[in-house]
Amino acid sequence: MVRLSMKKIHIFVFLAFLTSISVQCDALTLLSPTEGQVVRENVRIVIPSADLPTEGFIAIYADDGTGDRFLVSMGRESAIKSGNNLIFIWNSKSTYFDPQDPSREKHYRDGNYVLTVKVLNRGGSVVDSAQVKSCS
Predict the structure, then answer these.
(1) Is there a domain that residue 20 lies in?
(2) pLDDT digits 0-9 by tens, 74-99
(3) Cα 106–126–21 angle (5° rounding)?
(4) Phi/psi zone of residue 111: left (φ > 0), alpha (ψ -120 to 50 degrees), beta?
């Protein structure tokens, strides 16, 4: 009878261990922008605070049909905290330089884009992402 109790304890400890190492499988919740939303100038990118690891950061990409182009990465300290959410601002009219022609300033034109937000951990590994089609 004592052996049976020890077996139950071992099973309980093992299940508790499995629970403690479980990996979060929830998808990143992108609260803003939403599908089809018009985005111009200062684009608000809103995610729940819980979706970003404490020492993690987000990376934002835009695709105008020619492939993903890296825009910017921002850490938690760059966010505006609003309740349980983090708000990141991307200035879509800011200047960027194309690696193919770094001497010429470029700007994003108004148009349709697929925005991708990737959540990365401290080591730079992608832990989650979300996409949304937007208009400008």
Answers:
(1) no
(2) 999 999 999 999 999 988 888 888 88
(3) 165
(4) left
CB-CB neighbours of 134 under 10 Å: 21
- Is 18 within the bounds of a domain? no
17 within domain boundaries: no
Cβ neighbors of 130 (< 8 A, separation 6 or more) are: 27, 28, 29, 30, 116, 117
Cβ atoms of residues 44 and 32 within 8 Å: yes
pLDDT bracket for residue 136 (50, 70, 90):
low
Which residues does 109 contact at the CB level (< 8 Å), separation at least 6?
A: 64
Tokens 């990465």 found at: 73
pTM: 0.73
How confident is residue 15, by pLDDT bands cut at 50, 70 and 90?
very low
Tokens 């300033």, residue?
A: 105
Number of domains in the chain: 1
Q: Look at residue 62 and tell me if it is in a domain.
A: yes
Could you list the residue range(s) of the whole structural domain that residue 32 is in?
25-135
CATH code of 124's domain: 2.60.40.10
Share of the chain above pLDDT 70, in %: 80
- Mean pLDDT of the residues in the chain: 81
